[in-house]
Amino acid sequence: MLIEARRLSYTYMPGTPFQVRALQNINLTVQKGEFVGIIGETGSGKSTLVQHFNGLLKPTEGELLINGKNVWTEGTGLRQLRSRIALLFQFPEHQLFEETVFKDIAFGPRNLGLKNGEVEKSVRYSMELMGLNYSSYKDRSPFSLSGGEKRRAAMAGIMAMDPEVIILDEPAAGMDPLGRRQFMETISMLHREENLTVILVTHNMEEVSRLADRLFVLSQGKMVLEGTPSVVFNSPATIKESGLEMPPLTYLLTRMRECGKKVRTDIFNVEEAGEEILRLYGEVHR
Amino acid sequence: MSMRSITLGHYLPGESVLHRLDPRVKLVALLILIVALFLIKSFTGFLFYGLFISAIFIASGLPWRYFLRGLKPVLYIIIFTLILHFLFTKGGQVYWRWGMLTIEEAGVAMGSFMTLRLALLVVTTLMITLTTSPISFADGIEYWLRPFRRLGVPGHEIAMMMTIALRFIPTLMEESDKIRKAQMARGADFETGNIFRRARNLVPLLVPLFVSAFRRADELAVAMEARCYQGGEGRTKMRELHTGMVDYIGIVTVGAVLAGIVLSGI
């Protein structure tokens, strides 16, 4: 599954005094099996952009191609598209509506036309994946769950559709640190082992720099930077202008570099950075 | 259902004379103009009224395209009225006949008259709502309800409820848009099928919408209590209403229009 945007622009409420140009001339491609991050400050157009990827918004100008086909003129239908490219909105627990957790998670698979047995299998699988015990949670009302459990039930509802691409819009906003780490580890595991394509929209620079293969930086509806995390965070001036911050590790390593320590600055996970710093001290001690 | 529909009849911030008028004055002026409109007896009267309204429209600085778009929803009612009168008001010369159906002189006259009145009524009202923010509107209503407090009419509470209701319309619209998209991303179908099927398909949209409306109401109540809100008693306003020269000129002008219509009998 290859997602490609060509000169894509989007305007909210065109032709009224309230019109807002949310996206301007965006070009990007996401390859099958990639893990990409989309970052930018609030109101930069991130959410608007990802809603184009599964046909929830129609570009005002330009086009969006999936596997080389324009979604709006030659695609195989939007419903089919949405089953393969899943989108998890911010605060997904607000979309729960059924009487039981099972029925709610089964909503997606049933819309795909799966048989009862297959529905049960996919619900069970996605609940366990999200850390909800199948037998103890399936008959509870989704409204009786705690905040964190609701979030996981809503996520299971998306995962149960067995998508090829998953778009996560600030998935961990308001989650506790442990829940957040568990969720991101699950996603990262699915990416590595099931070759799930992941598009992550986030404010968390540490997380996205560690997990994503490539990053897109949006600012005021325009794409200002793109590339691997080390390329993107090598332009601190543009990052700052876009209202973002460097990941803490990059900041630390850059500061050390400025103080004359010879460390690499393109490291994005704590273990590797630790080794790098120890190596430095090892040299000093030797 | 989209974001687009919320803007119709929606307040448009601006700096014109009409925007700056005291909302209390605007409410009275609107009332006078509506009375005047219903006292008009002839097409000549409508012509003068129309010229007056056009002058105000120009002064308001509203973009006419946006204004016309706001009229669209009422267009169907106007056309319906016109057709009813054309077909069912009888009298005078017969212009057109098709089986049982006839269009007669009285019908055309009455139809055009009623349609014009209705159209002018909507135009006048829309001009006021487009230039008055919901908050100042509620302030104006609160002021005029004040005399009825002795009769037990809770003026402040009514105004507060109106403000809150108006304030939450766009929020709920946005919310429903978001939930609709979220369910569509799960393969929900809101566009096809017969009417029963469609109604049933709305459940995944309506349940979360109600849940969120109640959640918001609860949060708002807590937030208001946390700031010691206790109703109108002894409450001062951040924006005091002031009646200035423009307001007096406005009210005199509108009064003159009414007097002119009554005295000339047009």
Key features of this structure:
heterodimer, A: 286 residues, alpha/beta, Rossmann fold, 3 domains, four-stranded antiparallel β-sheet, globular, B: 266 residues, mainly alpha, 2 domains, two-stranded antiparallel sheet, 10 helices, flat
Tell me about the biggest sheet of chain A?
6 strands, mixed
Please give the CATH architecture of the largest domain in chain A: 3-Layer(aba) Sandwich
Biggest interface, chains and residue tallies? A-B, 29 and 26 residues
> What is the count of structural domains of chain B?
2
The total of beta strands of chain A comes to: 10
Strand content of chain B: under 5%
Q: Write down the overall mean pLDDT of chain A.
A: 89
Shape of chain B: flat
In total, the number of domains of chain A comes to: 3
CATH homologous superfamily title of the largest domain in chain A: P-loop containing nucleotide triphosphate hydrolases
Estimated structural class of chain A:
alpha/beta
Which consecutive residue ranges of chain B, at least 5 long each, have pLDDT under 50? 1-8
Q: Rg of chain A, please?
A: 21 Å
Written overview of the protein:
- The complex is a heterodimer of chains A (286) and B (266).
- Chain A is of the alpha/beta class.
- Chain A has 3 domains: 1-90 and 201-243, P-loop containing nucleotide triphosphate hydrolases (Rossmann fold, 3-Layer(aba) Sandwich); 92-169, no CATH class; 247-286, no CATH class.
- Chain A has helices at residues 46-53, 78-84, 101-111, 116-129, 134-137, 147-159, 177-193, 205-211, 229-232, 236-241, 248-258, 270-285; strands at residues 3-12, 20-30, 35-39, 61-66, 69-70, 85-88, 165-169, 197-202, 214-219, 222-227.
- Chain A has a 6-stranded mixed β-sheet, sandwiched between helices.
- In chain A, 41% of the residues are buried.
- Chain B has 266 residues and is mainly α.
- Chain B folds into 2 domains: 10-132 and 242-266, no CATH class; 134-235, no CATH class.
- In chain B, 70% of the residues lie in helices and 3% in strands.
- Chain B contains 10 helices and 2 strands.
- Chain B has helices at 17-20, 23-39, 43-60, 64-88, 105-131, 134-145, 155-185, 195-201, 203-226, 245-264; strands at residues 94-98, 101-104.
- In chain B, strands 1-2 form a two-stranded antiparallel ribbon.
- Chain B starts with 16 loop residues before the first helix and ends with a helix.
- The relative contact order of chain B is 0.15.
- The chains are: A alpha/beta (286), B mainly alpha (266).
